[in-house]
Design a protein that fits this description.
The complex is a heterodimer of chains A (168) and B (156).
Chain A: H1 13-31, H2 39-46, H3 57-60, H4 63-82, H5 95-100, H6 104-125, H7 129-138, H8 142-166
Chain B: H1 2-19, H2 24-31, H3 37-59, H4 77-93, H5 97-106, H6 111-133, E1 141-144, E2 151-154
Antiparallel strand pairs in B: 1-2
The chains are: A mainly alpha (168), B mainly alpha (156).
Chain lengths: 168, 156
Amino acid sequence: MHLILNDLRPIHWAVAGAGISAATLCLLLVANRRLGISTGLEDLCSLVSSQPYFRRSALRSGREWRLPFLAGLILGGFLSATFSGGWTPTWSLGMFDSVIGLGPAGKLVWMFVGGLFIGFGTRLANGCTSGHGIFGLSNFELPSLVATLSFMAGGIFTTQLLYRVVFH
Amino acid sequence: MRALYLVLGTIFGFVLSRSGAADYNYIQGMFLFENFQLYGIIGTAVVLTAPGLWLIQRRGHTALGAPVRVELKPMTRGTVIGSLLFGVGWSIAGMCPGPILVNIGEGKIYALAALAGALTGAGVFGTLYSRLQSPLRLPPLEVTAPGKARVRSVRH
């Protein structure tokens, strides 16, 4: 299966896993930072919201590393596209287009709803695939194991429901 | 240090982009048990990161000599409920938080809507925190008051 991005062949999973691990370990070894991306959503909220939740000292102290890291994620995606056939804005969404088939307006609504679940859920759970799934599991933390099993269950249930039942 | 964080984020984003971790089809393939790629990525990352974390914490200080202290995440009633909700969102959007940003960088226009949704969802959670705190047993907030250095604890 090729990627949606420029129809590329993906790199081997072992290479990708090693790259993710190297960046995660480097963050801790050099800067004493625990990998966690979804907390960055709060950093962005804290730029405009004065709710006490977004003024937590634990949040403020991490902003200086998370905001540049988040900018890097966008830059990484941009460079990946640029060095592989060019950067082109696209609405292409793979099997969503062939099976569910909503147009641009429908996709925006669909993605916004998905985003709501992601934003609310990761904050309630205190982490996402990176902070719980990669760092927490690697550090043998029980809450992270519980979280990882739960978000995998939520994803498996929803995708199976969408692709094997509703849009079958 | 900010340059280092930017570079690490860029490497992380590039790997997510090229591996399928930020690809809608690969995410659905994982949840449909039709594609091994994502299981391989997460499994490899954990297997390699675990001994590394153990060594770094045993060593006890960073490469620059500062103490290493890993903040642990609490277990609350929100751990299961929040993660289930996140899983639903991961499936709907085909992206988790990192890949939302990677997809924006790649030029996938709809990822902007996923980011708007995620920020709204996080904003709603922050706004409702005081009301969710007691039923879900969420920890109290250590808040820095604006313009003041002192830290106060907000309980509801």
